[in-house]
Amino acid sequence: MNSFFRDILAEVHQYYDGLVAFFPRLVMGIIILAITWFISRQISNAASRRLKKQMEDPLLAEFLATMARSLVFIFGLLFALKALGLGGITASILAGAGITAFIIGFALRDIGENFLAGILLAFKRPFRVGDFIETGAIKGRVIRLNIRDTHLKTPDGKDVYVPNAQFIKIPLINYTIDGFLRYDFLVGIPTSVDYQKAMKEISGAVNSTDGIITRRKKTEVFISGIAPGRVDVTVSFWIDTFKIRGSADSIRSEVFQRVQAVVEALA
After folding, report:
1. pTM to 2 decimals?
2. Where in the sequence is the domain holding 74, given as residue range(s)?
3. CA-to-CA distance for 38 and 195, rounded, in angstroms?
4. CA distances from 100 to 94, 104, 113, 197, 248 (A)
């Protein structure tokens, strides 16, 4: 019985000695991880600021800064494992990176697909922060491009996170990549009204609205159809979204009101 307890105490002392010997390496590993996390954050912030100053596209700058942060943290993690005495595990991780990547890629193929799509979007740059885009049934303004998804703000205030792979698979419509946005609407003019005069006054009312482009792109008013008792006129105008103060929808609403006032006055 005494030998049994002696064996237990010997094992306990052995584990204790091992824990005492391992504790400094554990502390060192934690310190390395903390320093790595701090350095990666500083590198990411510095790279983001510098790249945004040198590059026209903040989406690409932010994406590259995030990638730099991730790489620094991965190297720090491997160094911390080596400091813990787990160099064999580190070597195994590096040696089996190909197999591991294949297994993880197969198991998490959707995440990997979105990640690769994020890289393509960052370099291809089909949209920028602030652009109004449409993909599938989703419309919204681009807020941020993340590694896995893109953050959009819809006109009704909803925050939508679209998987990046969707932009590769589904056609993307960018309404404001060059700043120009066109609106078209139909106006019915009674046949009792001089429609040529009405068309000129409608064009003047549209061009007098703040935010409407009148030089580089012209407002168009033309007959698009005829029906009993009325002439259908299509009004087409352009807005420079880079220069307007309010929203494009508010300018469009103002145009509608002015055109309606012209039609009512002539009728």
Report:
1. 0.52
2. 2-95
3. 70
4. 9, 6, 16, 74, 50
